[in-house]
Structures are given as structure tokens and as C-alpha cells.
Amino acid sequence: xxxxxxxxxxxxxxxxxxxxxxxxxxxxxxxxxxxxxxxxxxxxxxxxxxxxxxxxxxxxxxxxxxxxxxxxxxxxxxxxxxxxxxxxxxxxxxxxxxxxxxxxxxxxxxxxxxxxxxxxxxxxxxxxxxxxxxxxxxxxxxxxxxxxxxxxxxxxxxxxxxxxxxxxxxxxxxxxxxxxxxxxxxxxxxxxxxxxxxxxxxxxxxxxxxxxxxxxxxxxxxxxxxxxxxxxxxxxxxxxxxxxxxxxxxxxxxxxxxxxxxxxxxxxxxxxxxxxxxxxxxxxxxxxxxxxx
Length: 293
Fold this sequence. Notes:
By secondary structure, the protein is mainly beta. 4% of the residues lie in helices and 51% in strands. The chain has helices at residues 123-126, 265-271; strands spanning 10-15, 23-27, 35-36, 40-42, 45-52, 64-71, 81-91, 96-108, 114-122, 140-148, 162-168, 179-180, 184-186, 189-196, 206-213, 223-233, 242-251, 256-264, 273-274, 277-291.
């Protein structure tokens, strides 16, 4: 089996039935460390579901059920395959499938043939008879669905789309933990930027910016928006702007996305303030908007 690769955001929903093209495997006992399904076809390629009912410790999955999809197709010359992955576990108590969807498109290649979720479901939940996933004397049912996706839009240094600029005055003496910009429109939605002048909980000493859906925006269940953005702290004395890229999915459970600027707050105040005003800028676009199954 190829190399493991997993770094994902998950969306969990319930379904009465899995997609018609879903591959299902029924396990009458869970003594083994790993189970592999028979090959199945989707999008002109062959795949295999791999389940670790006790967790894949090699992929930091201890204490969880780990689930993966392996691409079995090979071509000459090799080609990359992009796909969305969904995994399913049948709940006998509710007579429904728990759908665990990886919201990021995955790139399968000759060097990375396996993608999945090392922490698809906690073992505490899975093995609790009251939860309904395991019933004595009956097989457990797992499934996987592969939906072929188009190649992601490549990142371009010069973004020809929406630009929003924001000047934050008296930056060094701000007392609040966060500053929120005015609303701006992009891709049919309203957005705001949030800046943490003192750092946030994940990066205490680094300057952080986040892109938010405005509070007035409500996403329907399963709706997701893919955005890519270039966020900058502008250099007031030249062209050494501090820039980071962001390309992620926004969904109802996580209406904000952002990353530390990799710029210490001390360096920010020394080099990027113009008369105690910080100028920030974002260029961004909505790449895709979709609903999961």
C-alpha cells in the first residue's frame, strides 16, 4: 500500500442511503488491524477502501477508526487524479449511514496513492453499543465514495480578482484582542477581515489575519465555499510586503479561515507601521461553491 497522506477538514452528516456508486464492505469480525475492500471503479479509475477499525497508529490515528481510499490505477506516463472523498459507517440503531466527508480535494499521484482520515471516528463512539454502530452478532458496514474533481486552479502571483484594503490606526495602542473590518462583497457573499493585534490563541506572538463570512451570511446545510486569497501586511517604506497565501473551504461549522502571518508582533511594529497605522490588503476570489451529498 502506498504512502499515507491526510490533513483534512471533515463534514459529518447523516444519510438514509449511501450514493449508488459507493463501495461498501461488511466485516463480521474486527480482530484484524487492517481490512481492504475489493477494487471498485469510479471516474475511470480503480480504487480500494482501507479500514483500520482499531486506528492506524502510523498516521496518528490511535484511539480512532481510520479510513482511507487507495488509487489502484496506473498509467504510462503517470497522471494525477483529483478527487473528493466520502466515507460511511452504518448505524444499526438509527438505520442510517454516518457520512464523513473530506472537504478538501485530494491529489492522487504515483508518489501519493493513498488519502484518507486517520481520525474518522473515535473508538469510544464506535465501540459503544448504545451508539448503534456495533451490534453483537451482526457485521459492521463501512463504505467509501470517490467523486472525480477537476484540477485546482493554480496559484498565480498576480491575482486579477477582488482587492480589499484596510488601514488600522493607532495600532500599537489598541487594547482590544481583535479588530474587524467593514464588510466587503466577493462571489455573491459578504465578508470581513479580522486582525489580532496581540496574536491569537494559536500564535501568541505572531500577527494573524482571518477571512470571515459576514455575520449576516448563512450557509445552508452541506454548503461550502472554496476561496483563495493573498493576504498582505504592506511595507510603508518600499515593496517588502509580508504576504501569505490561503486556499481553503469555508463551511457552516467554520465560517472563518486564516493563518499566522509568520511575522512577530515586535517586527510588525518596528517595520510595518506608518505613523502608527497598519495597512493590510487582501486579494481574493471564490474558486468554487458546492453542496456535499
